[in-house]
Amino acid sequence: MGMQDELSAYGAWRSRVEQTLVRLRGWLFESNLKDTLNDQLIEQLLMKLRDDRLVVAFVAEFSRGKSELINAIFFGDQGTRVLPSSTGRTTMCPTELMYDPQRPACIDLLPIDTRRSGVQVSDLKAQSAAWTRLPLDTRSASAMQQALSRVSEQRVVSIEDAETLGFRIDLSGENGLQPDAHGRVAVPAWRHAVINLPHPLLRQGLVILDTPGLNAIGAEPELTLSLLPAAHAVLFVLGMDTGVTQSDLGVWKSHVTAAGGSRQGRLAVLNKMDSLWDGLRSEAQIESEIQRQIASCATTLDIPAARVFPVSAQKGLLARVQGDAALLARSRLPLLERALLEDLLPAKRDIVAAAVEKDACELIARTRELLQGRHRAIDDQMAEFSDLRGKNRGVIQYMLRRVRAEKDDFERGLERFYATRNVFSTQTNELFAHLGMDALRTRTQRTRQIMEDANFSLQLREAMNGFFEEVRDSLRRSAASIDEIFSMMEAMYQRFSTEHDLRLGVPVPFSVHRYEKDITRLEQAFHQQFNTWLNLITTEKRALTQRFFETVAVEVRKHMEVVNRDVEHWLRAIMAPLENQVREHQKQLKRRLDSVKRIHEATDTLEERIEELRQNAAALDQQLEELARVEATLQAALRAPVLSVVSVAA
173 — alpha (psi -120 to 50), left (phi > 0) or beta? Predict the structure, then answer.
């Protein structure tokens, strides 16, 4: 099964899960069981599935054959190179290859001057006017190549302009861009490129992220702080002839595994293996040299040797264009593709399936409990009414008084429920006083003022460190508030279950621990990228302050927006079961009281009422069976195997 087949299988699996959720939503509507919480939850799951992307990032220093490797793996079926990869025509800006059916085939290029605005690329994606759009003629390979070569464009600026645009300048060219004899610097013409291409792999939700070399990648911190950590797989491309150079190691430590990130999903690729095919070495000597480089690379990068793959991207592309199976096998490209699929698809499927299963199963469990509660109420009424057969009016009057007393007792319990809901609202407000975006904006403004007023580098460092400490403190305070809310709701669940026989179970807890880990990862990346003495000493205060708030603070804001969204969802989810069951119990008590009144007023309606209840119970049995079938279909869809990785076809 080839890569396209594997991705198609994953897309088909995702579609089956989506269809099952649509069926669940339709059944809830037809059964008069829909509510706002369930509607929102299903819509969120459907959006998550429809917007699902598989992101594969390629990272390398210049001249490692990265773009050629992308051509060989993904675009060998095009019969030619898609991305420019000839000498001197390298990728100069981060480039995303994807497919959005809502847009035409095109290249959207973001001018480098947008760095002066202080707005992140992710925010600028919503501003079409900020981009330069070029159409793509997918029918002409030469026209495609010409259009795509635009990502390699450069412009020459003064040293001052280059530094303003975020590029580090170094006269030696080792730790930054090197000026020419006239004090001019060549910088990328574009800050970011998005290529919208209707390629079969991209149609399946694959997104390819092609990154520039160290000096260019370091000028766009959003790559390190956001785009690369979010990638599901990162291929770090090295040269077989050079192994891991110092600049390669700098890219690996500062960008690929920044913030102590997991090595999972990170593969090292020793490209240009064909440089060893010089006709002078025997196959045994070639293999010995390859194994030596693999071992050296694995040791230097601190990864297992099994995650280092020697390939020849150029020969692999040539083999695919010419249909040469023997050359393709010798290029070892299929082995890398198989490892990529083994890393990418099962892990991604497990993440998506777990997220869908958690929320969908909670929804189904709430719905089942609602139906079972209605069934229990009907069973109780049938037992009561069956006992009334042949009984006199006095017995019926006694039952009427008893039901009224039960209803009055429940309404007194409602006063406690309403009081709890008021406390819940107060605690929620306190929670968002710590966690909310208003608090973060205040914190950010305070930090900016401190940094602008700072006179020494140490004060700048203390302000930036203090910003992260305040964010972590807000999460700690939020965790305490969440624990208080959970304890209160747990007690309320228990009280209503005991006093009014509501089957509420145990409320679902919530933890901010994983969000704290995200902030810690972001802080570690910040320390590697910004909070160094070299940066503090060599970067002008205003530029450093601006860079901090344009990148790090923006990423913190995005993380906190996710926390706020998830906490709001949890708050709705923890209150909804109690509200739903209280509302349902009220309805059942009212129906029961009305039924006894009708029987009291006309005893000949007793048998009619018992028969009506029996029919209602049968309808509920049918709904529970249908719900079980929907749940079984969903579980089967989630657990269905997506792929069975075998040798990748040519």
Answer: left
CB atoms within 10 A of CB 303: 18
Q: Is residue 166 part of a domain?
A: no
- Nearest in space to 586 (alpha carbons), one of 417, 382, 420: 417
With a cut of 70, say whether residue 68 has pLDDT above it: yes
| Structural domains counted in the chain | 2
| Interatomic CA distance for residues 70 and 85, integer angstroms | 10
Is residue 649 over pLDDT 50? no
The overall average pLDDT reported for the chain is 83
Q: Give yes or no for residue 106 having a pLDDT over 80.
A: yes
Kindly state whether residues 306 and 427 are assigned to the same domain: no
Quick one: pLDDT band at residue 260, thresholds 50, 70, 90? very low
Q: Which helix (H) or strand (E) holds 96?
A: strand 95-98
Examine residue 8 and state whether it is found in any structural domain, yes or no. Answer: no
568 phi/psi in degrees, rounded to 5: -60, -40
Final residue before a domain boundary, out of 315, 331, 347: 331
Please name every residue paired with 308 in a beta bridge, in sequence order, or none if there are none. 268
CA dist., res. 19 & res. 634, Å (int): 9
Token pair for residue 635?
Answer: 């579980």
- Which residue type occupies 361? C
Q: With cut-offs at 50, 70 and 90, classify the pLDDT of residue 537.
A: low
Domain extent for 225: 53-153+189-331
Q: Are residues 70 and 217 in the same domain?
A: yes
Same domain, 212 and 327: yes
> Are 92 and 193 part of one and the same domain?
yes
Helix (H, G, I), strand (E, B) or coil at 189: coil
Per-residue confidence (pLDDT) for residue 650, from 0 to 100? 38
Closest CA to 256 of 75, 510, 57: 57
Write down the residue that tokens 């079938």 correspond to: 629
What's the whole-model pTM score?
0.73
In a domain, 168, yes or no: no
pLDDT in tens, 159-188: 888 888 878 787 776 667 788 888 898 888
Q: Which two tokens stand for residue 206?
A: 């694959």
pLDDT at position 329, please?
Answer: 94
425 and 278 together in one domain: no
In whole angstroms, how far apart are CA 517 and each of 130, 223, 435?
34, 19, 16
Domain closes at, from 331, 357, 375: 331
| pLDDT on residue 644 | 45
614 domain residue, yes or no: no
Residue 349 has pLDDT above 90, yes or no: no
